[in-house]
Amino acid sequence: YIINISKELLSEVLENEVVKFKIVSTKRITQIRIWYKDTEWHMYESWDIYHLAHKCKEWALSKGHYISLIIDEDDKTKCRYVLNLSWNDGYEVDFVLASEPYDTETEAIFKACEYIMENKCGR
Fold it and tell me: Strand, helix or coil at 86?
């Protein structure tokens, strides 16, 4: 289970500076352990990967973007993300921003949020 998410995005979403993180995966659950700057090194917070993906979607919504997922037309086992962007005048438009299909919904959500953060989209 490969998870591509940056420390910068985790810091933005969780509103605390992330120093490092580690993915811990078992047959039943995938978690991400996160160490923060303000805590001692042996202190960390553990998140279920799906709960973290939901938190990322909420963060995107706070920036004025709704993330929805669509099944890739060429490979039904993969998905792409769609960002619904809202402009100041109330105009809304859907953009498919994924240049490639993603293997999991969480990967697509994290990639959409990385796009929002890197392009400084939103409020």
Answer: strand
Residue showing tokens 């240049």: 99
Q: How many residues does the chain have?
A: 123
Please give the DSSP secondary-structure letter assigned to residue 92.
E
Using only C-alpha atoms, what is the Rg of the chain?
A: 15
Strands 45-48 and 92-96: unpaired
Instruction: Please check whether residue 45 is in contact with residue 52, taking contact to mean a CB–CB distance below 8 angstroms.
Output: no
Q: Tokens at residue 38, please?
A: 């303000």
Strand order in the sheet with 79-86: 65-71, 79-86, 92-96
Residue 91 corresponds to which tokens in the numbers above? 């105009």
Distance CA 26, CA 106 (A): 17
Q: Is the pTM of this model over 0.85?
A: no
Select from 54, 1, 10 the least CA-distant residue to 33. 10
Q: Treating both helix axes as pointing N-terminal to C-terminal, what angle do 105-118 and 7-14 enclose, rounded to 10 degrees?
A: 90
Per-residue pLDDT tens over the stretch 50-84? 999 999 999 988 888 878 777 777 777 877 777 66
